[in-house]
Write a structure and sequence with these properties.
Elements lengths: L22 E5 L2 E4 L4 H4 L2 E3 L5 E3 L2 E8 L2 E8 L18 E5 L26 H4 L2 H8 L2 E5 L10 H18 L5 E7 L1 H12 L6 E6 L4 H18 L10 H10 L7 H5 L4 H13 L4 H8 L1
Parallel strand pairs: 7-8, 7-9, 9-10
Antiparallel strand pairs: 1-2, 3-4, 5-6, 6-8
């Protein structure tokens, strides 16, 4: 995929290049010209409406509703468009992808760009990549920082950011036929909350991994933290406490094989809870002041 910013392509070309060359816009009045050999290096896709074209993706980022958003779409360099006359490869469908985890932040965040929460870069072949698949089929993909539960646990502003971003797409790309949400873990929770409180933002949901409800999960990881503290098995907050934790673990007298009978779940769950979930339940005021300064 090749990134190409800008809603329209100026009609100028660099000196010494013919107008017939294919190029990518890189700024107002400038075009980066691709050599003829580059065509062989760019994958070709066919949308679900039968449009065959190079797999070139336009990435638009900006700030809306006090935080960042990202819109990606198939793009034909050199072809202008308007909302009333979109480029032919767009099928009018939108896929919204959400980040995972849960967190509270008072600073600006980044729109999530992954398919499954917690997955590291490079795992797309193993875990799947619905974003690339959707783009290749002609979808526009959308994400906003406010609708990322790992950054902003606020139902109202999350839904508001998606409504504003969809309005932006309609006004700049064209009418939307329908919108599908996708996400795992916190991305599933965000979809379910938004769809329940604001019906109409999505016409379909793909909840890849979800919870029975938020409060059950919240009580569980809160109990984990309390029990770990009582047993002296609480994970350290930083690497400097790791060796002390291991020493306590070896001398505690409570074997990890006995943990499930106390915690009521797998031994790994209280560890993950202490490292990821419990610290994310309250904002880091020190970071907040640092960002503000």
């Amino acid at each position: 995929m090749t990134q190409a910013p800008g809603p329209t392509v100026p009609g100028t070309t660099p000196p010494g290049q013919s107008d017939g060359n294919k190029g990518l816009p890189i700024g107002e009045g400038e075009v980066r010209v691709l050599s003829n050999r580059a065509d062989d290096d760019i994958a070709t896709v066919t949308t679900d409406e039968g449009v065959e074209m190079p797999f070139i993706v336009r990435v638009e980022t900006g700030v809306m509703n006090r935080d960042r958003y990202q819109v990606m779409s198939l793009f034909q360099p050199g072809n202008d468009w308007t909302a009333l006359n979109p480029q032919e490869q767009w099928n009018g469908k939108v896929l919204i992808h959400h980040g995972g985890n849960v967190g509270v932040s008072y600073g600006m965040g980044s729109p999530p760009n992954g398919d499954i929460s917690g997955a590291t870069n490079g795992n797309e072949l193993l875990l799947g990549d619905s974003i690339s698949v959707a783009l290749a089929r002609g979808f526009i993909t959308l994400s906003t920082a406010q609708a990322n539960l790992g950054h902003n646990v606020n139902l109202v502003t999350a839904a508001e950011s998606l409504m504003m971003a969809k309005e932006h797409i309609i006004e700049n790309y064209g009418p939307v036929r329908y919108t599908i949400g996708t996400g795992c873990s916190g991305g599933a929770i965000a979809q379910q909350h938004i769809a329940n409180a604001y019906p109409g933002i999505y016409q379909g949901l793909i909840v890849q991994c979800s919870y029975p409800d938020v409060w059950t999960t919240a009580m569980q990881f809160a109990d984990y933290n309390l029990i770990s503290n009582y047993l002296g098995l609480q994970m350290p907050e930083g690497p400097e406490g790791f060796f002390s934790f291991m020493a306590d673990l070896l001398t505690n007298g409570l074997l990890p094989t006995q943990w499930p009978f106390i915690y009521g779940h797998l031994p790994v769950n209280p560890v993950v809870s202490d490292l990821a979930f419990f610290p994310a339940a309250y904002p880091d005021q020190e970071d907040c002041r640092h960002s503000a300064g």
